[in-house]
Amino acid sequence: MMLYDGLRPPSPLDPSAAGYKEWLHVNVLHHESGIVGLINVSLHGPPMNPRSRALGTALFHVPAVGWVGNIEVGGLEEAAVGPASIRMQRVALAVDALAGEVMASVLDRANGVVVRSRATPAAAPVPVEWSLPLGHGWISWYVVPRLTLKGAWTVADRRMDLEAASAYYDHNWGRWHWGDDLGWEWGCFLTPAPGPGFVMSRVTDRAHRVLGAPSLLVTAGGRRWMFDGPAVELDYRDALEVTPRRVPGAMAALHQDRAHPPLPRRLRIDANNGIDHVAVEFTGQAAAQVVAADPIVRGYGFIHEIAGQFTCSGRLGGADVAGAGLGMLEHVD
Amino acid sequence: MWPGRGLECLSMSTKPNVALGSRRLTLGQYVIALIRILGTNSPSALARMRQVVGNRRARILLDDEAIDVAFGPHGLLVERAIRGRRVDGEGATDSETVLALLDGYLEVPDAILEGRLRVSGAAEAVTRMFAAIEILLDASPRTPGLQALAARFRFARGEQRGSPPRSHRHPWYPFASETDEREMLAALGLLPEVFEPG
Hints:
The complex is a heterodimer of chains A (333) and B (198).
Chain A: E1 20-30, E2 35-44, E3 53-62, E4 66-75, E5 80-82, E6 85-87, E7 91-96, E8 101-108, E9 113-121, E10 126-134, E11 137-155, E12 158-161, E13 166-175, E14 183-190, E15 197-204, E16 215-220, E17 223-228, E18 232-239, E19 245-247, H1 249-254, E20 264-272, E21 277-293, E22 300-316, E23 319-332
Parallel strand pairs in A: 19-21
Antiparallel strand pairs in A: 1-2, 1-13, 2-3, 3-4, 5-6, 6-7, 7-8, 8-9, 9-11, 10-11, 11-12, 11-13, 14-15, 14-23, 15-16, 16-17, 18-20, 20-21, 21-22, 22-23
Chain B: H1 27-41, H2 43-53, E1 57-62, E2 65-72, E3 75-80, E4 89-93, H3 95-102, H4 108-113, E5 118-121, H5 123-139, H6 144-156, H7 179-187
Parallel strand pairs in B: 1-4
Antiparallel strand pairs in B: 1-2, 2-3, 4-5
Helix pairs in contact in B: 1-2, 1-6, 2-5
């Protein structure tokens, strides 16, 4: 399956280029060990601007251990940016369109992580090429809701094969400044293949009081369902009372007031279009906070990654579905 | 070869990492460079820092280095610390702690509570010292020179980096709070906010 995906940097004439943001993102869910991994390479600020930054994030939640990995921050001009790849010193993600592969590479022994993986789509990509309003700007994305993996990782001194793990890939790009009145909620929940998988999203304001229309993308049995708007209900419950791992350290030190952010512990998603219906119950176990500093204007965004487990049940295409797996819920303000 | 198409992270190549100055700077040289870069790239931030600091003098101790810093009429004054000289506030730590803070493995309150970051002085002087540090940190995302200086510190003092912790961070209080204590804190509105669905 070919992947028609590539980076979308702004043209030199783009008046909104100062708000340029773009990233490639992979989640790897290792069902046997319960490890939930996040690998992300992102660009913040316009090309050719010495202030613009590139971030490489490799964070893995290991049950009974905690978060392993770290984030690296460098100049955008120091990153090797290709048509569909971003390579930093320790973290790299690349899309090979013709081969239909997403490749991830992390070499960060100092922080206990080495990953080399290749992922191929197990579900058709979903391009969302139009610009979704986000604060005063916009965001677009390209999603592959489930991929199969080859490769291995060493996390917290444990080497594991990734063949039985599940993966998710997305690519986001848009224009906004961190610190604007914006936020979003996103989640990726995958049972072991060939079970169902779910991708939830909605944009919000920074306080998560003004809520955009939610959507839930479901893949099961080789088919795909999209629920959105009033067909999807999100119900957050309980507070996640954990101390989050916060990176980068300098920005965490600056924002002591965000050391204990109010985050949800549980999320129930109910989706029903009158014919098909499904329910997802996610329970978070740990949180990490990535403090995103805007390199062009003074402002900060707080990206919370909540690792946990979920169960699901429902009826899709005339067949009952049920399962359990791992997930990552993202809460941004 | 893996992944095989030259798309792996850069550290897998044989090229050297980003060229960082190899010479190890002294504490005084770091402080001078920080203020010089701040003033060049963000004069308003430096003006705020000078306003916050005023004519106070601080002593900074890092590992076995100690300096006294103050702003004079012509700019920053950095001198070797002299025992007996009056200072308004003092901050002391070590490179391992600084690296742990930069790596996100240690939070500032934990560093203070564990005695790895010792700050002393009158309350106002200490508050002003932290405010000056906040101004510096706040300017750093928009000041590549400050980030490069942090990278140089990491590079030069990398051997002093401790191992990443392999377990959950322990709360400073090793015992749970009592019910009546929590009730009293709740009545006073002093408990942290809990998540409220939008």
